[in-house]
Each structure stands twice: as C-alpha cells, then as structure tokens.
Amino acid sequence: MTIASNVNQCLSTIKGIEAQLSSLALNSLEEEAKAMFHETSLKIGDVKKDLQYRVLELERNEPQYKGT
C-alpha cells in the first residue's frame, strides 16, 4: 500500500468518526454529553481538513499518487 493510499484510508476513517460523533451529539439526551461529542466532532473536523490538504499536496507533488 502506498503512502497516498494510507492517507486516503485514514481520511475515510476520520470522516466516519466525524459523522458518528455528530450523530451522537444530536441523539444524546444529556447536555454535557452533547457538548462533548460536538466539540470532539469539531476537533476531528480540523484533523480531516489537515488530511485533505495532505492528499492534495501528495497529488500535486507526487503525480504517481493522483487519483488513488
């Protein structure tokens, strides 16, 4: 597995985690839990943005990774 494949796989996992945390925030009954899930989802969103940027960097600088 190439670096680009690993980063893309990690990005997909992060997207799933972000969606699950958002769902937990919406469905939680306790306000403290809602806030914690929401805050964590936002932090994961920042990680997702960083990984998306890294994928673009890989594709731009390493043409062999484009579209993987």
TrEMBL record:
Pfam family for this entry, one: DUF1657
Write down the superkingdom of origin.
Bacteria
Q: What is this protein called?
A: DUF1657 domain-containing protein
